[in-house]
Specification:
The chain is built from seven helices and seven strands, in the order αααβββαβαβαβαβ. The protein has 205 residues and is α/β, with parallel strands linked by helices. Helix 1 crosses helix 2 and helix 4 crosses helix 7. The chain binds zinc ion (ZN). May play a role in DNA repair. It seems to be involved in an RecBC-independent recombinational process of DNA repair. It may act with RecF and RecO.
């Protein structure tokens, strides 16, 4: 159905908003009209925050977490246990694990999981840099905290094969989280417990 917009500018703005995940054209229209009702300074602050975020955001050189600095706050915190590395899919997972307040180690953000269906192979992810970190020494334990999906399991196994000959303990978070669950949907208590009760990863699922 072709909707008639009274303004091309309005149509364009609605079009941009409706590209966002979970935002249909109706919601997009509501958001745009809401912004239009705000004063100019508010709308400018909104627009600028997105532009500045995209232009200036950095990714930690060590763990690939989102950061305002070259090395993120977690990696540069001397109170954290740098000998334990928790491997997660994305930045939201770092936030989920941090929210449990049960983990004192550092992270490694893969940027996804191996998924041939979606055309994501090992080289599209930060796996080589993980192997590199372990090879450099100082890491005693790598904790796999990926989703309990087939893709997560495939990635766990791939990492296991890469690290099995290296002198590092490989563990996997307890499967208190049911199969198919993503980390970010687990509640803090469950996720915290899964990390505390992690088990040795032996390559079998
Ligand atoms: Zn970092």
């Amino acid at each position: 159905m072709n909707q008639q917009y009274p303004s091309i500018l309005l149509e364009k703005a609605v079009g941009e908003f409706s590209k966002l995940p979970g935002i249909g054209r109706k919601t997009a229209m509501r958001l745009v009209l809401h912004l239009l009702r705000q004063d100019t300074a508010t709308v400018e602050a909104f627009g600028n925050s997105i532009i500045t975020l995209k232009r200036e955001v950095k990714y930690c050189k060590v763990c690939h977490n989102i950061s305002d600095t070259e090395i993120c706050q977690i990696c540069s915190n001397s109170q954290r246990d740098a000998s334990t590395v928790c491997v997660v899919e994305n930045i939201r997972d770092v936030m989920a694990v941090e929210a449990t307040q049960q983990y004192r180690g550092i992270y490694h953000v893969l940027g996804g999981v191996i998924s041939p269906m979606d055309g994501v192979g090992p080289s599209d992810l930060q796996i080589e840099s993980l192997v590199q970190r372990v090879a450099e020494g100082g890491i005693n334990e790598v904790i796999l905290a990926l989703s309990t999906t087939m893709e997560g399991d495939t990635t766990n196994f791939y990492i296991y094969r890469k690290l099995e000959k290296m002198n590092v303990k490989l563990s996997v978070i307890a499967r208190g989280i049911s199969v198919g669950d993503e980390l970010e949907y687990a509640d803090e208590v469950t996720l915290g417990r899964s990390i505390v009760n992690r088990t040795l990863f032996t390559g079998t699922v």
